C-alpha cells in the first residue's frame, strides 16, 4: 500500500508543507489578487523540508512587501522572442530589427535562452559579455548584446514577470575610443584622379561634396536632386539586412532616414552640379525622375558591398592604404572643420541627430585657434560674473 504523504502546517498558519511521493517537499500558499479579489494557490518545491519552507517564507515576505511576482515557467529565450516580435518589430527600422534578431539568435539565445526567466541572474549575462570581450569581439557587438538583453528584461519588469532587471548590474568592458582616420588631402586627390576612369566617379565626387552615407548615395533617385536650384534631398537609403530564417540569407531594402535630421536637404555647388548634370546626360536619365542615380546594369539597386569593392579596387590602383568608404565621410567633416566651418553646420550636413555626436567624433580635429577663441569667450564670461 502506498505511503501517505506527510503534511505539516507552517508556524504562522499560512500555507502547508507536504512531502510528495517522489521524496520532494512541496510548500503551498494562497494569495489574494488585490485587483480582482480572486484567490490563487502557488507551490514551491525543495529536496528537503527546510528548502521548501525557506522558499515559502520568502514568497510570503514578498507578498507582504509588495515584491511578489507570479511564478512563471517561461524561459528567457521564449520571452526574448516575444519581446522582439511583439514589442520591437513595429518600432525599429528593418535594418535595426534584423541586427537585433541576428545578435539574439547568434549570441544570446544559445547561452541563456534555456534559463527560466525568473531564475536569470546578472552573472549569466556578465559571462556572455566577458566571453565576447576575451574572444576579441567588438565593443559594438558587446553593447548590442547588453542593450537587447536589458531591453527584454525591462519589459518583463513592466509586465511583472520579474521583480527587477538583473542586467542593470552588468559591468561593460571599457575599450579605447575608436580613432577617426580621415584620408589625407593628398590621398583624396590621388584617389579622385584614378577614380575618373570609373563609371562611379560621380558618386565619389558627390561623397566628397556632401559627406553622405554610402546607403544614402545608393538610395538616391534623380527626383531627389534639383539640378536647377542646386539642392539634394535625402529621403531614403539602401541597406542589406540579415533575414531571420538563416544566417547566410540577406536582402537589400530601401528605408527612410533613422531620424528627422537624417532626412535633410543639402546644398550643391558648381563642381558637384556640373558632374551630376554630365552624368545624367551620359546615362540618359534626364526624363527618368524615379530612376536610381547609381544603379546596376539592369537599373536596379546597386549592392553596397559591390560598390565598396569597386572603391577598394580604386584605392589599390592609387597606391592608397585600404580604408572604409565611411572614411571619406570623416574626411569631409575634418576638412571642413580645419577650414573653419562650425561644428553645428557640419552636424547639419552629416545629419547627426545630436550635436554631442559630432563633437565626440570630431572635436580633436578642430583648429587650435578655434579652441583658443572658445577659451577666451569663457574667460570673458567669467570676468563678467566674478
Estimated helix fraction: 40-55%
What do the pLDDT scores average to? 86
Question: What percent of residues are in strands?
Answer: 5-15%
Number of strands: 9
Our count of helices gives 14
Distance between the termini: 94 Å
| Shape, per Cα inertia axes | elongated
Write down the domain tally. Answer: 3
H/E element sequence: EEEEHHHHHHHHEEEEEHHHHHH
List the helices and strands and how they pair.
Blueprint: E1 7-9, E2 16-19, E3 25-32, E4 39-46, H1 49-65, H2 76-88, H3 94-112, H4 122-134, H5 139-158, H6 185-195, H7 201-210, H8 214-218, E5 225-226, E6 231-233, E7 237-242, E8 250-255, E9 265-267, H9 270-282, H10 304-318, H11 326-338, H12 343-350, H13 355-362, H14 368-385
Antiparallel strand pairs: 1-2, 2-3, 3-4, 5-6, 6-9, 7-8
Labels describing this entry:
47% helix; three-stranded antiparallel β-sheet; DNA polymerase, domain 1; alpha+beta; four-stranded antiparallel β-sheet; 386 residues; 3 domains; elongated; 14 helices; hpI Integrase, Chain A
In short:
With 386 residues, the protein is an alpha+beta fold. It contains 14 helices and nine strands.
Structure write-up:
By secondary structure, the protein is α+β, with helices and mostly antiparallel strands. It has three domains: 49 residues; 84 residues, Tyrosine recombinase, N-terminal domain (DNA polymerase, domain 1), CATH 1.10.150; 185 residues, Intergrase catalytic core (hpI Integrase, Chain A, Orthogonal Bundle). 47% of the residues lie in helices and 11% in strands. It has 14 helices and nine strands. The strands form three sheets. The protein has a four-stranded antiparallel beta sheet, with helices on one face. It has a three-stranded antiparallel beta sheet with strand order 5-6-9, with no helix packed on it. A two-stranded antiparallel sheet has the order 7-8. Strand 7 and strand 8 form a beta hairpin. Helix 3 packs across helix 5. The longest helix has 20 residues. It is elongated, with a radius of gyration of 30 Å. It starts with 6 loop residues before the first strand and ends with a helix. About 2% of the residues have low confidence.
Amino acid at each position: 500500500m502506498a505511503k501517505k504523504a506527510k503534511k505539516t502546517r507552517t508556524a504562522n498558519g499560512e500555507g502547508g508543507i507536504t512531502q510528495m511521493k517522489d521524496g520532494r517537499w512541496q510548500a503551498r500558499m494562497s494569495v489574494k489578487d488585490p485587483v480582482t479579489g480572486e484567490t490563487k494557490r502557488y507551490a514551491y518545491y525543495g529536496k528537503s523540508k527546510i528548502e521548501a519552507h525557506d522558499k515559502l517564507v520568502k514568497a510570503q515576505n514578498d507578498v507582504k512587501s509588495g515584491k511578489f511576482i507570479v511564478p512563471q515557467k517561461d524561459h528567457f529565450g521564449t520571452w526574448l522572442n516575444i519581446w522582439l516580435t511583439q514589442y520591437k518589430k513595429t518600432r525599429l527600422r528593418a535594418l535595426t530589427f534584423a541586427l537585433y534578431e541576428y545578435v539574439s539568435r547568434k549570441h544570446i539565445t544559445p547561452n541563456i535562452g534555456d534559463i527560466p526567466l525568473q531564475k536569470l541572474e546578472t552573472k549569466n549575462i556578465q559571462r556572455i559579455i566577458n566571453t565576447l570581450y576575451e574572444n576579441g569581439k567588438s565593443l559594438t557587438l558587446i553593447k548590442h548584446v547588453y542593450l537587447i538583453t536589458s531591453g527584454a528584461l525591462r519589459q518583463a519588469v513592466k509586465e511583472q514577470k520579474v521583480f527587477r532587471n538583473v542586467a542593470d548590474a552588468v559591468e561593460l568592458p571599457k575599450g579605447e575610443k575608436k580613432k577617426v582616420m580621415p584620408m589625407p588631402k593628398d590621398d583624396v586627390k590621388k584617389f579622385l584622379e584614378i577614380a575618373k576612369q570609373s563609371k562611379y566617379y560621380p558618386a565619389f565626387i558627390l561623397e566628397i561634396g556632401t559627406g553622405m552615407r554610402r546607403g544614402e548615395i545608393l538610395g538616391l533617385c534623380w527626383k531627389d536632386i534639383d539640378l536647377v536650384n542646386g539642392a539634394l534631398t535625402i529621403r531614403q537609403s539602401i541597406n542589406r539586412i540579415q533575414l531571420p530564417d538563416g544566417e547566410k540569407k540577406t536582402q537589400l531594402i530601401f528605408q527612410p532616414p533613422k531620424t528627422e535630421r537624417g532626412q535633410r536637404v543639402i546644398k550643391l555647388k558648381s563642381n558637384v552640379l556640373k558632374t551630376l548634370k554630365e552624368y545624367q546626360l551620359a546615362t540618359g536619365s534626364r526624363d527618368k525622375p524615379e530612376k536610381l542615380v547609381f544603379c546596376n546594369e539592369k537599373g536596379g539597386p546597386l549592392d553596397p558591398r559591390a560598390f565598396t569593392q569597386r572603391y577598394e579596387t580604386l584605392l589599390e590602383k592609387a597606391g592608397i592604404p585600404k580604408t572604409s568608404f565611411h572614411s571619406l565621410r570623416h574626411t569631409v567633416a575634418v576638412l571642413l572643420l580645419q577650414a573653419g566651418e562650425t561644428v553645428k553646420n557640419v552636424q547639419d550636413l552629416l545629419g547627426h541627430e545630436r550635436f554631442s555626436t559630432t563633437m565626440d567624433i570630431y572635436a580633436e580635429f578642430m583648429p587650435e585657434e578655434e579652441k583658443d577663441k572658445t577659451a577666451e569667450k569663457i574667460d570673458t564670461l567669467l570676468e563678467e560674473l566674478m
